Amino acid sequence: MQRVEQAFEVSSEHEIRIIRGSSGKHYAQIRNGAPFDIFLSADQLRPRRLVEEGFAVKSSLTTYAHGQLALWSRVDDLPLDREYLLNTDNYRVIAMANPRLAPYGQAALEVFSSLGLEALVREKLVMGENIAQAFQFAFSGNADLGLVAYSQALSPNMLGQQGSVWLVPSELHQPIKQDMVILSDSPAALEFASYMKSSAVQDILLSGGYLLPEGAP
Amino acid sequence: MLSQPDMAALLITLRLAATTTLILLLLGTPLAWWLATTRSRARSAIEAVIALPLVLPPTVLGFYLLLAFSPDGPIGATTAALSLPSMAFSFWGLVLGSAIYSLPFVVQPLQNSFASLGRMPLEVAATLGAGPLDRFISVVLPLSKMGYLTAAVLGFAHTLGEFGVVLMIGGNIPGETQVLSIAIYDHVEALEYSQAHWLAAGLLLCSFLVLLMIYSANRRFHLMKTT
After folding, report:
1. Option in A125, A129, A142 nearest B70 (CB)
2. Tens-digit pLDDT profile for residues B41-68
3. How far apart are the C-alpha atoms of B211 and B158, rounded to whole Å?
4. A204 CA to chain B: closest CA distance, Å?
5. What percent of chain A has pLDDT over 90?
């Protein structure tokens, strides 16, 4: 998002302020009058609910990216792949996001069930409130592995940090569709929404570990 | 009303608060006594360290504990060397975090209470031939009842309300590290507002009753002293 912000502010006369937080918290804040112009959620449920409840502009509801899931460890040069994950002797603690709260957590759960690992990893699971916390657990080494967002493993803040990463094949889970919706009638919000569809942003998303939604140019 | 995981969260929270309070009363007594009686120059520094959790955001404590618990952190390396299980994501890890977090709430009332005794009662007891332990048990403890009640209630209540530290080092494991404040947060995040209300209102009422109890006990105590 930082790179999108910088790129937008170069090309536009508007400035934006990014307010980070979990999708659930922002949903509650928006419903209670938070002065946000546009909501980029990590899921589809919450923007849709805001539209149904009349807090967001229906026609602006659109999927801006597909998230990808990665298996990550801070240990260098681990041969992370499907077999590594299947052999549960390889790890004691594995971190993921809470599936009730975060779409990446839901996807992680689907990966476990596609691989038939659900029962085997139950005792090894620790859950972050969101994907950032799941990453923190793995990053600090308290969890041996983490099922995190691929974008986190590629984050610019990670440069210089080694670690091992395996991009989890997308057929192991449902697509992680991330929606955005406009909340106000500010012209800057409209401009930003259309900017999110531009090729500049799509390049940033692709190199940042996201996939583009179907039908994107 | 309360689902099974919410019930488990309630029990874990009570167990955590009770364990932490007990440990803090045991460790806090000698510490508070030393602080109340010493003339050492180190006193101010120790007092400042104990008061740190009052001013620091709990996330600071949680973050450093998480690093300390990691395999190459000081606590993680120690537990690994003793082949003990890691403290991260465990009930005893939460106890350690809560004990640090609630330390000033137990030590400060005890210290004030010990300091207000003055030296007279102890010197009288000593001239009557009471040994140090006897003096502490039969003179200091009864005279510090109010201090202990305040310390226990504040320590307990403050641990009940703990969130930031648990969030950072807990890992949200039901029946092990998922406490009430986390369960409430989860309900809000998952848009389950009615369950969130049940727990939040329950905690609010509980905290109010605990504080009401201590303030009315305090009042009665002062009335007793003045009449």
Report:
1. A142
2. 999 999 999 999 999 998 899 999 999 9
3. 11
4. 29
5. 69
Runs of H (alpha helix) within chain A: 2-11, 23-31, 45-52, 82-86, 103-114, 118-121, 131-139, 150-153, 187-195, 199-207
The structural domain count of chain B equals 1
CA distance A151 to A66: 11
Q: How many CB pairs under 8 A join A and B?
A: 64
Domain formed by A69-167, architecture: 3-Layer(aba) Sandwich (3.40)
Q: Which residues make up the CATH 3.40.190.10 domain(s) of chain A?
A: 2-66+176-207, 69-167
How distant, in Å, are the alpha carbons of A58, A180, A213, B154, B173 from that of A50? 9, 11, 21, 41, 31
The SS3 call for residue A164 is strand
Name every chain A residue with its beta carbon within 8 A of the beta carbon of B168: 133
Position A215 scores a pLDDT of 63
pTM, 2 dp: 0.82
